[in-house]
């Protein structure tokens, strides 16, 4: 198989909108109460949540890829119902089908 990429896309990053601190933290034998810090963070977290909602609804940025340097090849050397081994000009790929019993053996 020979592949040529004509377009790439940049997905907006996923930014967590909350930061959960523990109630207390012990440093060098001293216990520090973090509840006042958490309360101060709540207003900042609300602002961050608004910003992340704005970012997450943006469409991916699509960029055309010019030239011939984006051509690649892939050769499948083994294939069955659950498993595929392919090699190409950029490496070796060992793929297992989602839901395959082979994945259970790896975990």
TrEMBL record:
<keyword id="KW-0934">Plastid</keyword>
<keyword id="KW-0809">Transit peptide</keyword>
<dbReference type="InterPro" id="IPR039633">
    <property type="entry name" value="PAP"/>
</dbReference>
<feature type="domain" description="Plastid lipid-associated protein/fibrillin conserved">
    <location>
        <begin position="2"/>
        <end position="96"/>
    </location>
</feature>
<dbReference type="InterPro" id="IPR006843">
    <property type="entry name" value="PAP/fibrillin_dom"/>
</dbReference>
<protein>
    <recommendedName>
        <fullName>Plastid lipid-associated protein/fibrillin conserved domain-containing protein</fullName>
    </recommendedName>
</protein>
<dbReference type="Pfam" id="PF04755">
    <property type="entry name" value="PAP_fibrillin"/>
</dbReference>
């Amino acid at each position: 198989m020979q592949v040529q990429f004509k377009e790439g896309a940049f997905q907006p990053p996923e930014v967590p909108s909350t930061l959960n601190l523990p109630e207390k933290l012990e440093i060098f034998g001293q216990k520090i109460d973090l509840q006042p810090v958490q309360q101060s963070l709540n207003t900042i977290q609300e602002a961050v949540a608004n910003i992340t909602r704005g970012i997450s609804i943006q469409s991916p940025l699509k960029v055309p890829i010019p030239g011939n340097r984006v051509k690649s090849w892939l050769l499948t050397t083994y294939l069955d119902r659950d498993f595929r081994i392919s090699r190409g000009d950029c490496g070796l790929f060992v793929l297992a089908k989602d839901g395959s019993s082979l994945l259970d053996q790896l975990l």
